[in-house]
Design brief:
Helices cover 46% and strands 19% of the residues. It has twelve helices and ten strands. Helix 2 crosses helix 10.
Length: 332
């Protein structure tokens, strides 16, 4: 009888130990052991653009720090909505699928589309801001435009007859054009493309006269005989393009279009993993060896806490609501 009682007590003790082990194992899987397999970084734009290039550089550095491969996966479409919804609604909240978010996907699209397929505030957890880049007005050398004033003069002489390209309807490049028209008192014709790279190719070929594009995409072309860089939509000149004036210097104040980007995961990802990703990425983004080559290409490298990134999203959501409403922009 005593032996049987001892056996029951032993089994009960083992069961209790097993129950205690569950949260410990779960904690280890959610923090210390992470990551145990490759991580995917989703870029919701086509390959070859400025955001894609930055993501690949960051992904390589992050993989080295975490000891796991970081695979960059392009999921373009609907101005970034397709890739963003894929991470926000279809992937597990486990830190193994990251999203490169931007001003477009996190603050413009929710004000533009009736249904983006995701809610940035409810579905996505910010990790850190990574970089920002100004938009630049670039024109084909097949046009007679050598200064911003030339574009304004031609547009006033032929209102609604001069095209400008962008990466897509509602993209920041499009909104930069909307803002330029408003501040200059002109009317242009928007030609949306499926990405900034194909639009730029048409400017280089002379198929469209001009576009706004991210500064890093244009730095390699600063000495090109196919395009002219007329003005930077920022409050200051870029060190990467020191000879290109701001719009204020070119006579059109108020044309500011600076695009920020950052990394997010699905909301509900364990805090330990969010903190680990923020810590590792922060170390990368603050490293001179990482920053300096990118800054020469025209990127302004940033870092932040998750809370700071979240506050920026909320602030710019309200600001973009006003801008898109004033411009009468809406997508069904």
């Amino acid at each position: 009888m005593n032996r049987r009682l001892s056996l029951y007590r032993c089994l009960a003790g083992l069961a209790a130990c097993a129950m205690l082990e569950v949260p410990q194992i779960a904690w280890a899987q959610s923090s210390g052991a992470y990551p145990t397999r490759p991580i995917t970084l989703v870029v919701p734009y086509p390959p070859g653009g400025a955001a894609d290039q930055f993501a690949r550089t960051l992904g390589h550095a992050l993989g080295e720090r975490l000891g796991q491969t970081v695979i960059v996966e392009n999921r373009p479409g609907a101005n970034g909505n397709i890739g963003s919804a894929f991470v926000a609604r279809r992937q597990a909240a486990d830190g193994y699928t990251l999203l490169l978010g931007s001003t477009s996907t996190l603050t413009i699209n929710p004000n533009l589309y009736a249904d983006t397929g995701y809610d940035p505030a409810k579905d996505l957890q910010p990790i850190t801001l990574t970089h920002q880049m100004a938009n630049v007005l670039v024109v084909s050398t097949k046009t007679p435009y050598k200064r911003v004033a030339d574009v304004i003069r031609a547009a006033k002489a032929n209102p609604g007859h001069i095209d400008f390209g962008s990466a897509g309807y509602g993209n920041t490049m499009h909104l930069a054009g909307v803002l330029f028209q408003k501040q200059a008192g002109i009317k242009l014709v928007h030609v949306p493309y499926k990405g900034g790279a194909p639009a730029l190719m048409d400017v280089l070929a002379g198929n469209i006269p001009m576009m706004f594009n991210n500064l890093p995409a244009l730095v390699p072309l600063k000495n090109s005989d196919k395009v002219r860089l007329l003005a930077v939509a920022d409050t200051k000149r870029s060190p990467a393009l020191p000879n290109v004036p701001t719009f204020a210097e070119a006579g059109v104040p108020g044309v500011i279009s600076v695009v920020w980007n950052g990394i997010l995961v699905r909301r509900g990802t364990p805090h330990a993993i969010v903190d680990r990703l923020n810590r590792e990425m922060g170390a990368i983004l603050k490293s001179p060896s990482f920053r300096q080559p990118l800054e020469k290409q025209g990127y302004e490298v940033l870092s932040s806490t998750p809370a700071q990134f979240e506050a920026l999203i909320k602030k710019d959501l309200a600001g973009m609501h006003k801008l898109t409403k004033e411009a009468g922009m809406k997508m069904n």
